[in-house]
Amino acid sequence: MPLRLVEQELVEADETERLYSIRFADPEGRRVDAYLREPIAAVDAAGTGAGRKVPAVVLVAGRFTGREAAKVIPGPLESVMLAVEYPQAIPVRVGVWEWIRSLPAIRRSARRMPGILRGAAYHLAERPEVDAARIGLVGVSFGVPFAAAAGNDRVFGAVALHYGGSNLASLFRANLPVENGWVRWVVGGFAGWWFREMDPGRHVAKISPTPLLLINATADDMIPHEAALRLASHALQPYRHVWLPYGHLSSTEVEVIREVADSTFRYFGFRRD
């Protein structure tokens, strides 16, 4: 899905980094919002031809975080970071029955997401400061299904799927805010079937031969251990699966985010150390 840049506005800057609010339009004119965060010295040097072009990452994270994910990665950055927002039809917080009524609209928007991620990568590849051969894709938590579906595009030089799993029915059952176990089982099973085309297990093998990194947590109460193992079982080499001794990743856990980000950038070959 090609994305047309409509607006780029500087929203924050310090001596080392800049943060831009980005607005794209898809081929049907629908709005796509994102944040772009960049290291000033490396980007300016690359843009003028005085330095090497820099790697870049397309990031799709939790539904609550959206494009704000670009802000929570601890610096200093050595790569350009582009974090995309979800379409409004994919709700942040909604009651179960309202969510069920919205399923057709949610599925339509979910189907757009892989194309949005590819379009974001092609936009990065056209930026003069970005090394088009070193563009990575990172999907975290809610973003894993969309990154898995987009990751087979060879615009991506590396892919990471963190805090995700396969078998969407089991993931819905683990996370639906429904106290009645029978209702949660039925609704979760139906939701897994309804969104079955987005199950990461259906797509992860197609990422090969692009290098793939999977990170999960042993105390994650949102991603069942079996679901994480099932996703890894569908992956093809080259890939690496790492288990961390934590719970599900939160945007407030700065040191854990730093550990995950550093591990990812090293695997991608995006860090000089």
Question: Describe it for me?
Answer:
- This protein is of the alpha/beta class and 273 residues long.
- It has one domain: Alpha/Beta hydrolase fold, catalytic domain (Rossmann fold, 3-Layer(aba) Sandwich), CATH 3.40.50.
- The protein is built from 9 helices and 9 strands.
- The chain has helices at 40-47, 69-72, 96-101, 103-126, 144-150, 168-175, 181-194, 225-234, 254-268; strands at residues 4-13, 17-25, 31-39, 54-60, 80-84, 130-140, 158-162, 212-217, 239-244.
- A 9-stranded mixed sheet has the order 1-2-3-5-4-6-7-8-9, with helices on both faces.
- α6 (168-175) packs antiparallel against α7 (181-194).
- The longest helix is centred in the middle third of the chain and has 24 residues, at 103-126.
- The two termini are 35 Å apart.
